[in-house]
Amino acid sequence: MFPAQPFVYLMNGKALNNTKKYKKALQSLQNGIDFVIDNNEIESKFYIEMAKAYQKLNDPKKADLFKSKAKKILK
Asked: What is the pTM (predicted TM-score) of this model?
C-alpha cells in the first residue's frame, strides 16, 4: 500500500507508463487521484499520465477525454 500522498501515486504511475506497464499505471493513477485536493497542477498531471496510458492501450476516446480534462483544469 502506498501512503496517502498523491505525488507518490503520480510518480508511480509515471514510472509504470515509462516501463510500458500501462494497466498498472492506470490503477495507481486512479487510486491516487482521490487524494488530490485543491491542487490543479497535480490533478492535471494525473490526467495527462492517464491519457498516455489509455493511448498506449489503444483507447483513443478515453485518452482524449483525459487530455481534455487536463486542459480544462489549467485554464
From this structure: 0.91
